[in-house]
């Protein structure tokens, strides 16, 4: 999508409809995602909704979620 780039304010991502997991807590300790264009996903920190968004391709997100499902990042949780 034209005009969407890493580091832009999450609230400025055109047409973003942010979605967060149902497991998020009352303090908004969560990551939200939004589809932006045909092949990109933006991510933001719910605690800082006007903070920067990170934009990933579909392939990058699929690879990351695959690693999460395999437990590749289990050692990173507290």
Description:
The chain has one helix spanning 58-70, and strands at residues 19-20, 31-35, 40-45, 54-57. 10% of the residues are buried. It has one helix and four strands, in the order ββββα. Helix content is 17%, strand content 22%. The protein is α+β, with helices and mostly antiparallel strands.
String of helices and strands: EEEEH
Overall spatial form:
globular
Q: What number is the mean pLDDT?
A: 89
Total of helices: 1
Counting helices, strands and paired strands, the structural category is: alpha+beta
Describe the oligomeric state of these chains in a short phrase: single chain
In helices, the fraction of residues equals 10-25%
Beta-strand portion reads 15-25%
CA radius of gyration is 13 Å
Largest sheet: 4 strands, antiparallel
Detail the poorly predicted runs: none
Q: Give the terminus-to-terminus CA distance.
A: 36 Å
Strand order within the widest sheet? 1-2-3-4
Strand tally: 4
Characteristics:
4 strands; globular; alpha+beta; 4-stranded antiparallel sheet; 78 residues
Give me the secondary-structure topology.
Elements: E1 19-20, E2 31-35, E3 40-45, E4 54-57, H1 58-70
Antiparallel strand pairs: 1-2, 2-3, 3-4
How is this structure best summarized?
With 78 residues, the protein is α+β, with helices and mostly antiparallel strands.
């Amino acid at each position: 999508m034209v005009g969407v780039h890493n580091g832009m304010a999450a609230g400025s991502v055109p047409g973003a409809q942010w979605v967060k997991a149902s497991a998020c807590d009352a303090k908004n300790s969560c990551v939200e995602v939004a589809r932006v264009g045909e092949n990109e996903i933006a991510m933001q920190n719910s605690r800082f909704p006007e903070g920067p968004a990170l934009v990933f391709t579909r392939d990058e997100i699929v690879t990351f979620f695959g690693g999460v499902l395999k437990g590749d990042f289990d050692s990173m949780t507290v």
